[in-house]
Amino acid sequence: MRIVGEDTELRPCVATIGSFDGVHQGHRFVVEQMASQARKKGLDAVVVTFGGHPLQVLRPDLKPQMLTLAEEKVELLLQTDIDKVALIDFTQELAQMSANDFMRIVLKEQLRVEVLMIGYDNHIGHDHKGFDDCCRYGEALGIEVIGCEEFPSVPKVSSTEVRRALLGGDVEIANDLLGYPYFLQGKVVKGFQNGRKLGFPTANLQVDDCKLIPENGVYLVRCKMENGKWKLPTVNCQLSTQFGMLNIGTRPTLHNGRQRSVEVHIFDFDGDLYGADMRLEFLHHLRKEKEFESLEALQLQLAEDEKACRELAGKESFHF
C-alpha cells in the first residue's frame, strides 16, 4: 500500500473505496460527499483505491483497458477536496479477502477508518458484500458505514459508458461524462517518419499498453509538455499548451503494416521532441481513419483536416 498526499501520516479518517477508473463525474460526486463528511467530523478524507483494475488480476484474459493509469488516477483524485489517496496493489491474496476481513485489517487497523462512505452500487470483498452487510460488520468494528446519494445524471455516468464513447470516437460525450478532456500521455519516440515526408511532421507518442486508446481516426487535441511546460532547450517556445492534429491508426495508405500508432502534428511548432514527455487532451473527433487512393489524395485530406482543426481551435472555448 502507498499513501499519497501532501501529508502522508495516517490519522483517523473518513474514507470511501472503489476502483475509480477514469475519476468521472459520478466518482467525484461520491468523493466530494465523503470529503464534506470528513470536514464536518474534523477527520481526514481518504480515498482507498487500487493501482490497477481488479479484473486485471481476476480475469487477465480479458485485458481490461484503463481510462486512467495508477498515477493518473491519483493526480485526478488529489484535485478534489481530499487529503490522501491510499493506493493498494490488487493481488490474488487481496482478492480472496472477505469483506469483514478487509474492513478489519485494511480499513480499521491499517488506515484507521472511522467512517466509511459507500456508493449506492459498491460491493466489498470476494464475498461481494453490499451496504447492509458492511453496516453490520462496521458496527462490530467501530466503523460507521454511511451511504452516499446517487449522482443525479441521465444518462447514467459510468466508466463503461466512457469506454463505449471513446471506442466509438465520441470524445465530446466521453469528456462530458468525465468532466475533463480524456487524455493520453507518454514519451515521444521515433516512428515511421512518414509525416515529415508528407509535409505534416508528427510526434509519435508511446502509450502504456494498459491505457485505452480511442477509435482510429483524426482528432483535434491540446498538447501539453512536461507537466504543462514546454521545457525544450532547442525550442524557443513560451506556451504551456498548443493545439495539434492527432492521427490514431495503422496508416493504411502508407502500407506500414498493422502496428497501431498515436501521432500528433503540432501546429506552428518545429523542434526535436524525442524523449520528451507529452500529454494529449482529446477535444474533437473529425473523421475515421481510411485508406486513400494515392499519397496526393492523403496530403489533400490532411490539409483539409488541419484547416478544420485550426478553425475549431479558434472558435471553441473548450471549457475544460
Structure description:
- With 320 residues, the chain is of the alpha/beta class.
- Helix content is 31%, strand content 24%.
- It contains ten helices and twelve strands.
- The protein has helices at 25-41, 55-58, 70-77, 92-95, 99-110, 131-141, 159-167, 171-178, 194-197, 295-315; strands spanning 2-4, 13-17, 44-50, 84-88, 113-118, 144-147, 183-189, 203-207, 217-225, 241-249, 261-266, 277-288.
- Strands 1-4-3-2-5-6 form a six-stranded mixed β-sheet, with helices on both faces.
- β2, α1 (25-41) and β3 form a beta-alpha-beta unit.
- The longest helix has 21 residues, at 295-315.
- The model is unreliable at 227-239 (pLDDT under 50).
Which structural class should the secondary elements be placed in? alpha/beta
Number of DSSP E strands: 12
- State the helicity in percent bands: 25-40%
Taken in chain order, the helices and strands follow as EEHEHHEHHEHEHHEHEEEEEH
Main sheet strand line-up: 1-4-3-2-5-6
The global form is: elongated
Biggest β-sheet strands, sense, barrel: 6 strands, mixed
User: Count the helices. How many?
Assistant: 10
Average pLDDT confidence is: 87
Keywords:
320 residues; alpha/beta; six-stranded mixed β-sheet
Quick gist of this model?
The protein has 320 residues and is of the alpha/beta class. The chain contains ten helices and twelve strands.
Topology:
Blueprint lengths: L1 E3 L8 E5 L7 H17 L2 E7 L4 H4 L11 H8 L6 E5 L3 H4 L3 H12 L2 E6 L12 H11 L2 E4 L11 H9 L3 H8 L4 E7 L4 H4 L5 E5 L9 E9 L15 E9 L11 E6 L10 E12 L6 H21 L5
Parallel strand pairs: 2-3, 2-5, 3-4, 5-6
Antiparallel strand pairs: 1-4, 7-8, 7-12, 8-11, 9-10, 9-12, 10-11
